């Protein structure tokens, strides 16, 4: 990857993107987030074979389209081999899989398949459940009572009715449950109770009851695209702790 980064920062080199302008723009935006601003050139898959040989000073090639024909793919691979150019594929279907793939060879054929998700094992489910009980229990017994009293006074003074707002949801096992939030629709926009962190705090009762999880049901995974898939494939107790800590510190991305 060091060669790729070096090539991207070389103003005489071109980073070739194969796909539509919209697909190329998405890749460029992600590179900019990483602090990379390469000189790019985009060509459509249907004109690849006609224009590829005319291109020079290519640092790397990234195919962001899944519309390449077999013959065009062969031409692209041959071009990269002859010019000692790095070749990458970045398609939506593959991006969510990331590194969690295994290759199995059967005779002369190779099969690519996802690895088992950590939460498919009962012991990891137990660890996650104990983590949810610990986190929700600490908040419910030491912090939530004070928040509830303040919220009840504010909500009741503004309008009669219950303190909680209830929405019917289904948990991960498909069973219905009452998802709780503070009833804040009658409060002014400036009210601190309308902030998601406080408004959704009653959901800790749902977590303690086993219908929700702290991560990612309450704390959203917003640190990468397809974060829900990535989270399931990479779950660990340390990851849950890290996500929760980032959320408390109001940082949306994970290093």
Number of β-strand runs: 8
Helical residue percent?
40-55%
Give the averaged pLDDT, no decimals: 82
What would you report as the Rg, rounded to the nearest angstrom? 25 Å
Spell the H/E element sequence: HEHEHEHEHEEHHEEHHHHH
Low-confidence stretches: none
What gross morphology would you assign?
Answer: elongated
Protein described:
The protein has helices at residues 2-9, 21-33, 48-51, 70-82, 92-95, 122-142, 144-158, 196-199, 203-208, 214-218, 227-234, 237-248, and strands at 14-18, 40-43, 58-63, 86-89, 101-106, 109-114, 164-170, 176-182. The protein has 255 residues and is an alpha/beta fold. The protein has 2 domains: 2-95, Rossmann fold, CATH 3.40.50.10490; 119-248, no CATH class. It has a 4-stranded parallel beta sheet with strand order 2-1-3-4, with helices on both faces. It has a two-stranded antiparallel sheet with strand order 5-6. It has a two-stranded antiparallel sheet with strand order 7-8. The protein is elongated, with a radius of gyration of 25 Å. The mean pLDDT is 82.
